[in-house]
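ARCHIVE CARD
CATEGORY: sequence design from structure
SOURCE FIELD: tokenized fold
FIELD CONTENT:
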């Protein structure tokens, strides 16, 4: 009886080569349909994470302003400004600040550090760029509007250099809903934590720094005041 059962079991037909190839083809088609969907879902998740990061940093910036009687933190990229350190596209190998997370949360160097608990909020999750002479991505991708707490130059060289009056108090911002605070800067221009836009009329205005394009060609901005 056992031998008969085994014979009967062994006589059952399996997949033919053609059937197996058809199954593999169907799986490949389904994978091809699903991968773009999964890719879009990943981009969306990274965009939400990035937006949450800039929201937390903007809240931290506003708390700093509130604790200093409406005075905006300095914004020149040096020690004692809102965020210090050079992390970007410089000649030669990047300096130690490229990979130093402590500079972001040390209140003696970056004043916003007293209000931030997680250094990850300084970095867009979609920013995977690695400097050609580094082994990993930098610790920061965000930069702040140069007009906020900074003396912005719009001329060329001394003595003809012209400066745009900076905004040093929250109450001086004319249109909070239209004034951006933070954005992710493009790896090709990021250096300090200051984002410059040289103002001008018509085509005279130029980009000194470039916004990032990590989110399907787009970049997120936070504003002094936002509505939903």
């Amino acid at each position: 009886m056992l031998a008969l059962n085994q014979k009967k079991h062994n006589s059952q037909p399996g997949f033919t080569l053609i059937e197996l190839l058809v199954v593999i083809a169907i799986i490949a088609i389904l994978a091809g349909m699903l991968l773009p969907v999964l890719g879009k879902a990943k981009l969306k998740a990274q965009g939400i994470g990035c937006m949450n990061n800039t929201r937390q940093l903007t809240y931290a910036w506003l708390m700093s302003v509130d604790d200093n009687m409406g005075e905006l933190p300095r914004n020149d990229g040096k020690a004692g400004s809102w965020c210090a350190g050079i992390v970007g596209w410089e000649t030669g190998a990047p300096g130690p600040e490229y990979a130093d997370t402590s500079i972001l949360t040390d209140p003696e160097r970056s004043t916003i550090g007293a209000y931030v608990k997680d250094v990850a909020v300084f970095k867009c999750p979609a920013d995977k760029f690695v400097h050609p002479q580094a082994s990993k991505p930098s610790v920061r991708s965000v930069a702040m509007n140069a007009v906020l707490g900074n003396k912005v130059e719009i001329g060329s060289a001394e003595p003809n250099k012209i400066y745009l009056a900076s905004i040093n108090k929250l109450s001086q911002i004319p249109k909070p809903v239209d004034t951006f605070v933070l954005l992710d800067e493009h790896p090709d221009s990021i250096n300090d934590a200051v984002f410059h836009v040289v103002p001008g009329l018509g085509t005279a205005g130029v980009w000194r720094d470039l916004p990032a394009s990590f989110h399907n060609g787009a970049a997120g901005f936070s504003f002094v005041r936002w509505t939903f």
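CARD ANNOTATION: Residues 15-223 form one domain. The CA atoms of residues 8 and 118 lie 66 Å apart.
SHELF: design records, drawer C
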